[in-house]
Amino acid sequence: MIIKDSQMRNVTSHPLFGSLKGIQVRSLNPDEFITPEDFPEQSRIHEISWVEMPSGTAIPEHKHEGCEEAKIIIYGMGMYSEDGFQEKVDAGDVIITQKGLNHSLENVGHYPLVYISITIS
């Protein structure tokens, strides 16, 4: 299956933390944007997003009650926080966040932080 850019939408706010404040997100939610014939019904994928965070921006602390999340860092440098633990992340790193854990990500570099986020139930 190939998902084209035209099947993704620009997201300006997030249901868990509100306004994205300058962060650019292109998102695909199979439940909303692809017909059942196009996307396997048994798939556990909840959402796929391409995220570009300018320097100094942050995804505030939040948690996913029903989903796990994987972030694949494509470009840039950030500070990832999860339930009180912090660690620097950069290109090539993969972040796995389990259901129900508080987490956030801040761009602490001078260049955009770009990553792919995949949430699964």
Give a quick precis of the structure.
This protein is mainly beta. It has one helix spanning 30-33; strands spanning 9-11, 13-14, 18-19, 24-28, 45-53, 58-62, 68-75, 77-82, 85-90, 94-97, 103-107, 113-120. The strands form three sheets. The chain has a six-stranded antiparallel beta sheet.
Written account of the structure:
It contains one helix and twelve strands, in the order E-E-E-E-H-E-E-E-E-E-E-E-E. The chain has 121 residues and is mainly β.
Strand content: over 45%
For the largest sheet, list the strands in their spatial order.
1-4-5-12-7-10
The poorly predicted ranges are none
- What is the average of the pLDDT values? 85
In terms of topology, how is this protein built?
Blueprint: E1 9-11, E2 13-14, E3 18-19, E4 24-28, H1 30-33, E5 45-53, E6 58-62, E7 68-75, E8 77-82, E9 85-90, E10 94-97, E11 103-107, E12 113-120
Antiparallel strand pairs: 1-4, 2-3, 4-5, 5-12, 6-11, 7-10, 7-12, 8-9, 8-11
What are the defining features of this structure?
globular, 121 residues, 1 helix, mainly beta, six-stranded antiparallel β-sheet, 12 strands
